[in-house]
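Summarise what follows for lecture notes:
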Amino acid sequence: MRRLILAFLAAVCAPSLAFAQSVPVSRLTLNLGEAAVLRFDEGGGALLSEHGPASDLSPFVAAVARDNADGRYDYATGGQTAAIPHDRYPEAPPITPSVLRMAFVAIPNSDETLLVIENGYELALSYRVMITRPGRAPEASDVCLATPNRYHFEHWPYPIERIEVVSLSTRPWREGDPVPCI
């Protein structure tokens, strides 16, 4: 009985929630400091397989986050995107094929926030977000298409408590195609 109770407590208190089977989702809520792993079924539907605390930032993500907070990419607003020159940063961790990871994190030593997307699909990810700032009602925010097999960053130069990711879908994209922001 004691082992059963310990096993139950370990499962309940585990730092991340991994599902035995992926759960279909049309919306994903991420509180600050949370992450999720999604997959897409053959019909393009989003399936949530993990949701829990975000892991520590890799040196690559931490360096990109720091440059965002320092204003290096301030021109990337609205429909304007910024290409991240990977030779400027530590080596990026490999992206897992056919897996989409999202982490909503605070940028260290600032009150700014960052959505980190690792798109391991051969297709681009299209999505929308609603952000909730402290003491304010949720509001829509513009985001850009997350291109295939790459890291993608959405930066907000202010604190956000929660984001809701909606309208998740994949679509074909090739190098040289436009990267729309809506």
The beta strands are 17-24, 27-31, 34-40, 46-53, 100-106, 113-119, 124-132, 139-141, 150-156, 162-171. The helical segments are 2-12, 59-69.
